Q: What sequence folds into this?
């Protein structure tokens, strides 16, 4: 089975309550270039109040038909694989925008999966994806990965992979959990890379790698709001992976985010006021989450220190 050439059947956007601002921006970027392609929200956990209805009413976006629940970090993206057999799709994280009609650049590809041709050192592959050397302890067939890719943007085809392909590595609970977390990066990214590599090596699954993503942590010339407004930018998916801040203006490539945010609220009644309020709520939510994470990490350090002291006393006795 292979993906249809050209456009996909739908675009999935993975979203959670903390990503509401980015979800709106991502949707606006998709609709800027693709007014008609169905967009479905892969919702993990509770969404921002009224967000799904807002997206439906003003942007024609629907929630994906998946069970309601907290899927954990990124695992909701795997649900696209188990949709209607043969459905071709593009999966995006919320903190992404399109800069052009990128789907047309894939017209010559009928591979069922298409991913970014990311280049990483051997150590980075083990840290960001999975440690193939250690995985041999439980899977003797494991080989060095042929490719690695950030799971925030990839094209796939439903019905080729099954839950059974992931079940040795993923617990299908709410939230999803890795059965062997010491071998994989937390979340969906490591295990998705592993399963696709394994299928490619053992079963001959065709997976094509192309340059499709740009990361604002490095230079990305030619991608700015002026070119977007003229639809003259090169077609890529810009992904702010690991770069989000409390205020959009503090982020590299913020002109792209602000361009699409203005377009999003331009469709809503009282859009200017709603945009200001949403920006303030986003900043508050961001800092509350940062405080929560720091407190949690601080607690873990204190517990580790106490356990270390007790162990030292035990050894001394």
A:
């Amino acid at each position: 089975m292979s993906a249809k050439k050209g456009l996909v059947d739908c675009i999935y956007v993975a979203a959670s309550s903390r990503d509401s601002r980015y979800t709106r921006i991502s949707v606006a970027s998709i609709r800027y270039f693709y007014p008609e392609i169905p967009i479905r929200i892969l919702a993990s956990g509770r969404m921002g109040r009224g967000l799904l209805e807002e997206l439906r009413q003003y942007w024609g976006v629907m929630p994906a038909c998946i069970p309601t629940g907290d899927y954990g970090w990124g695992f909701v993206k795997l649900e696209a694989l188990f949709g209607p057999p043969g459905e071709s799709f593009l999966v995006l994280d919320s903190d992404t925008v399109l800069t052009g009609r990128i789907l047309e650049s894939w017209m010559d590809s009928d591979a069922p999966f298409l991913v970014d041709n990311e280049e990483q050192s051997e150590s980075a592959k083990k840290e960001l994806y999975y440690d193939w050397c250690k995985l041999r302890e439980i899977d003797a067939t494991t080989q060095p990965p042929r490719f690695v890719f950030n799971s925030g943007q990839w094209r796939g085809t439903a019905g080729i992979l099954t839950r059974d392909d992931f079940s040795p590595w993923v617990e299908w609970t709410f939230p999803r959990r890795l059965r062997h977390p010491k071998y994989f990066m937390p979340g969906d990214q490591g295990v998705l890379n592993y399963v696709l590599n394994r299928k490619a090596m053992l079963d001959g699954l065709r997976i094509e790698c192309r340059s499709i993503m740009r990361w604002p942590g490095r230079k990305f010339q030619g991608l700015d709001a002026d070119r977007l407004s003229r639809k003259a930018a090169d077609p890529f998916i810009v992904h702010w992976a690991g770069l989000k801040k409390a205020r959009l203006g503090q982020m590299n490539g913020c002109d792209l985010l602000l361009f699409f945010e203005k377009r999003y609220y331009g469709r809503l009644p009282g859009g200017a006021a709603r945009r200001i309020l949403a920006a303030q709520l986003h900043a508050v939510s961001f800092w509350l989450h940062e405080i929560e994470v720091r407190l949690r990490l601080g607690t873990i350090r204190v517990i580790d220190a106490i356990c270390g002291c007790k162990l030292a006393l035990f050894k001394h006795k």
Observations:
- Residues 271-316 form the longest helix (46 residues).
- The chain has a mean pLDDT of 92.
- Residues 90 and 155 are 4 Å apart (CA to CA).
